[in-house]
Amino acid sequence: MEGLGILGGTFDPPHNAHLALAERSLRQLALSCVLWVLTPDPPHKADNITPYPLRREMLRAAIAGIPAFELSEVETERRGPHYMVDTLRILRRRNPGTEFTLLLGGDSLRDILRWHHPRQLIRMCTLAVLRRPGTRVGMARLEKFVPGISKRTVFIEAPPMQISSTNIRSLVREGKSIAGQVPPAVGEIIRRNGLYR
Question: Is residue 34 scored above 80 in pLDDT?
Fold first, then answer.
């Protein structure tokens, strides 16, 4: 059965930890492809996100030249709010017989109880989680509220990376370098458009 990874987010901006999660998951889980699902209007984020066309340009630049990475704009096809559980339903209808793996950072797994219908979500996919430094995930607590989540979760081994979109935006605002945290092409788009200033 074909395995397809799903990495969803605002990608504001996409950074090297996103790429590490996707690349490690691709290899360790023998996925055929990672779909990068760009969210137009995430229900859990503030209104001051970068306009969708610029985030799409950054994401395209970040994954350019990697054949197993594909940008998905499936969430632009319907009105928001956009929840991953609904996106997965659409992708499963379009890809019958495909095994889906949702790629997450450890902080996202920790906060999964705030997600829309997490019990339904884990019935549709496996969760592949990249541990983030300083993030503790209490699987016993999650299991209490989302029965079966432990058996549906695998952890991805990768070197610890202290990179986050929030921190990158702060560094740019402070006039500090983000070299090594984002692909050079993404850094150029940020500079050229004066983002996060």
Answer: yes
